[in-house]
Amino acid sequence: MDHDSDLVERCLEGGGGAWEQLVRAHTRLVYGACYRFTGRADEAHDLTQEVFIRVFRSLHTFNPESGAFRTWLIRLTRNLLIDHYRKNKKHQAVDPLDDQMYALEETSGLGGQADRLLRRREAKEALQSAVSQLSPELREAVILRDFQEMEYREIGESLGIPEGTVKSRINRGRRELARRLRAMGVSA
Amino acid sequence: MKCFEFSDRLCDFLDRTLAVEDERAMEAHAAGCTRCADELEDCRLALGVIAEAPAIEPPPQLIAEIIHETIGVPSGAVETAGGGRWGFLGALFHPFGQPRFVMGMAMTMLSFSMFTLYGQRAIDEWQAPQGSPTVALVERFSAKVAGLWDRAGEMTDSAITFYEMQTGEAAPGPAAEPVEGER
After folding, report:
1. What kind and span of H or E run contains B151?
2. Nearest CA of chain B to the CA of A159: how many Å?
3. A129, HSE (Cβ side, Cα atoms, 13 Å)
4. Are A28 and B54 within 8 A, CB to CB?
């Protein structure tokens, strides 16, 4: 039995300390995925809390024989993120990239002001903006692999898709990301 | 190598997990195929930018909040309160041993004590006809109130002592002083 499964078992036996260890071990993973997916710290904070509350309530349903705790946790996180995405889809503003492209076209005739504007843009914000504009299925694959550094097999198990499909989505996600980054004037 | 094979192996190529001869085949294919070379370049650009991105750290208070939301005790306290042989039962009753709760209880008891003290004085000052059943009832009630007042004072002292043991500080506020004087 792996360490996480052992902690889960101790939690179910009433060990509050084991639960704290589980939370400490995985908060970074869950928060990182939520932040990269939503692009907002406040939403990531609330979603991470919600994930762990759900995990705590459904801990008794975790079966170590059907996969690792981390995989189960990511699956729960992913389901919550997709629910969140669907709920907020209609409230999302106009594609920010379109706005930026429009602003660039407006300023491109003003003696290279657009270039200076782009150089000042923080790469962090540009990257987050580009990630947020990927479709959910490409976004989750890129986040889990490139930001959370999970194995292809683990991602496949979490998302319920074959490893080949994981790689294909990652390739497509990276290409789409590169296209959007270029459009924002970001280069490696 | 076909283009679809190139795409299939692209992740492994970028991870540097392919065999040397497969890597060479990929490089040779990219050199002669514009579409696949573009795909490779796009992926490298995305990975390059991601590699420079700072790591995302959760807010420091988040773990404590999660622990509090789930098992209702402050982070760190669970090791002693919930991790022992008492398990979640210990965690459940842990809040009752917290200094804030104890002080709250002490203040409540003091409030009741003050109420009963002034209630007793009001009864003492009340002049009733001697020998009537009402007077006997009032006297009995007065004696009960006096006993209750003494017990409340003792409980308040115990609570304050417990608070001081928990925190290592003298109990703040008016709870410590007027009790003795009033009694």
Report:
1. helix B133-167
2. 18
3. 22
4. no
